[in-house]
Amino acid sequence: KFTPRVFSGIQPSGNLHLGNYLGALKRFVDMQGPEKETVYCMVDLHAITVWQEPKELAHSTRELCAGFIAAGIDPEQSILFNQSQVPEHTQLAWIFNCVARMGWMQRMTQWKDKAGKNQQNASLGLLAYPSLMAADILVYHATHVPVGDDQKQHLELTRDIAIKFNNDFGVDFFPITEPVIEGAATRVMSLRDGSKKMSKSDPSDMSRINMTDDADTIAKKIRKAKTDPDALPSEVDGLSERPEARNLVNIYAALSNQTTDEVLAEVGGKQFGEFKPMLADLAVAKLSPISTEMARLMGEEAEIDRILAKGADKARAIAAPILRQTYEIVGM
Ligand code: ADP
Ligand code: NA
Prior knowledge:
ATP-binding; tryptophan-tRNA ligase activity; protein biosynthesis
């Protein structure tokens, strides 16, 4: 009933990093193709669920757009736009706020992590975040959503919202979306601590490789990455108790489009003293062209704004009729 359509988003909250690239952006590019519609969004409305300096938000939104294009998203082939320019997202989110239950939101691990101990002082938007995310996806009737592993729970909630809406109103209107979480790097870990995911908000810049890092910085961060004294195993089972080692091998695999086992078949037996420079060379070879192109695009703000405005028009052409039908179903 539903034609295949891919949707995903990234928050313009600064520090776009290797985890975002391997877990999300690179896979957005892989899914782009003439046979399916791909819709990609900078989700600024999600970013402001925690405080953002207005000037930095505007800068980060353009920088993220430059990152999408530099990584290989073609604004002619994909719909590329900024969330707040398509009001249908928030309009549908309100309907979903009335479909979803408080308890569903309060169970989310991201809410618990980000709100911390003082939940009473977290923004209401931070609690409602997954409801807006469901609207982002379902306002396009998207069927497939490529994301990193950390978004799995939110996508389950998106399915729950679609199912409850369809049941409540006795319709088969919203698709039950498939998460697409695959590849060697669905969860890239911090370079300083193998138990934490690489994240924009980690206070240690050495914990992540930023998409804007230069070659020397990338090499230095990999050289200093936490590892263990053992040689690399020749099979993935040998990494099960070695999170830092596994993380570096997974990064290598994702950057070189191989499986982790294929990489280990090649590098098994090597020490990190030998493997780290190989990884650094590979990372620089793959990331430098992207950061160079991002910097060039950032010199053309007007062009970026034009691309985003055009993308928003194309997005609204899909979202507006779906919102209108939703209102009719609800009786509005
Ligand atoms: P962040 O979590 O860095 O603040 P977002 O929430 O905007 O970034 O996530 C954008 C996309 O990047 C999502 O699909 C998310 O799952 C993915 N992602 C974020 N961090 C990682 C990571 N460390 N490894 C793999 N994917 C990640
Ligand atoms: Na995230």
